[in-house]
Design brief:
With 267 residues, the chain is of the alpha/beta class. The protein is 29% helix and 16% strand. The strands form 2 sheets. A 7-stranded mixed sheet has the order 3-2-1-4-7-6-8, with helices on both faces. The protein has a 3-stranded mixed sheet with strand order 5-10-9.
Length: 267
Amino acid sequence: MSDAYVTLVTNADFARGAGALLNSIAASGSCADRVVMHTAGTPDSALAPLAELGARLIPVELLPTAPEFNALHARDRLHGAAPFTKGEKPVFHTPLDNFAKLRLWQLEYDRVVFLDADTLVLRNIDRLFDYPEFCAAPNVYESLGDFHRLNSGVFTARPDPATFERMLARLDAPGAFWRRTDQTFLQDFFPDWHGLPVTMNMLQYVWLNLPDLWSWDAIHVLHYQYEKPWMAHDKAESLRPLIDLWQDFAAGRAPDLSALPGPCASS
């Protein structure tokens, strides 16, 4: 049975993130394949380092969605219809690109764990390959009310072309609008999604908003939602230990997790 960790890069910035992710997967001791799906917006110069890290590079196209769908989910239109106020979306983030991750259902693997390119694997998560489709952690970073929504930064999948075709038909149905792009769509497509613990997709804003949930001893995947650790941004000092951790992995260093401070120590 063939297993793979899969991520998606759509530009040079996310390729930079994927490099740190690949280093973190290697540091976890996993022997599973590592696949980077990449769109035409990613230059070869940004992809070459990922191949050197052992990733299998697979070019993918954006989905063949209708012009009306594309216009509705363009950055300005989407954020106008669903204003975004809780964090800073980077300028290189293009919401329509998010849907390209559905291409993983076309891959020739039996079992896949998808990881966004702005995540790090802090502890081995190979056991997730044994989990069914579709498992994801809740989108918790602000309050307990977040538990009813999934976050698509980490999830389990079983590639199948027939599933992909059903997805495409539902995705681009007349009048369809997916407020949180792929996250809203995947929750609609898999309404009985299996919940992973938040430690399998710990969102960085938990550090700021729900520090009692934070435990370095338990976190398996850290997800840098909104502001990215390679960016200059207003929350950088508040998130400094997390940013330093990402910088270590990006440089190919395996940091000592036991030496990391907790949220209270950083405030």
